[in-house]
Amino acid sequence: MSWTGNLFAGEDDAALRLRQAACLLSDVGWAEHPDYRAEHACLRILRYPFPGIDHDERAFLALAVYARYAGSIDGPGTPNAVTAGPRSLLSDAQARKALVLGLALRLAHTLTGGATALLQRTALKVSGERLVLSLPDDFSVPAGETVQRRLDALAKALNRKGEIVPPARPQAAE
């Protein structure tokens, strides 16, 4: 959860609680077939009897986790059949926040496979017009095309440009 904190500066206690819940639920669909993970995770959250949340909060959690698996909350040009219901309960700003959180969780899981010790060795921060991902010097968290694509998707949702600050390459011995 702390890894995503820089993306949501100034949030109140209720928003912080909801972000924490989304982070805890972010891997709820891990055992599902990849073709159905996003849909099943979203529907599971919509149907599970969580105490202490209202319908809007449940919709937010469902969309954030859907975005974590699918990389979006809408289909190409049209609302997704699964996300249209929960999306209708949220304002555009809330839906955008769910998308940003879901994309951040998607990137985090891509980087580390859910290993929080590895995630703690990376940093994600907004710096002016850039979204900067810093990686550790020992190459324990490798960057690649998938990481760059997912960082770019998150940066685009934040109206920024994604940038990976790679570790310094070791110098070859002469």
Offer a concise description of the structure.
This protein is mainly α and 174 residues long.
Number of strands: 3
Shape descriptor reads globular
Radius of gyration: 17 Å
Order of helices and strands: HHHHHHEEHE
Percent of residues in helices: 40-55%
Strand order of the largest sheet: 1-2-3
Largest sheet: 3 strands, mixed
Give the terminus-to-terminus CA distance.
Answer: 44 Å
Number of helical elements: 7
Q: How much is the average pLDDT?
A: 90
Helix-strand makeup class: mainly alpha
The fraction of residues in strands falls at 5-15%
* Low-pLDDT regions: none
Structure in words:
This protein has seven helices and three strands. With 174 residues, it is mainly alpha-helical. Strand 2, helix 7 and strand 3 form a beta-alpha-beta unit. Helix 1 packs across helix 3. The chain starts with 12 loop residues before the first helix and ends in a 9-residue tail after the last strand. The model has no long low-confidence stretch (mean pLDDT 90).
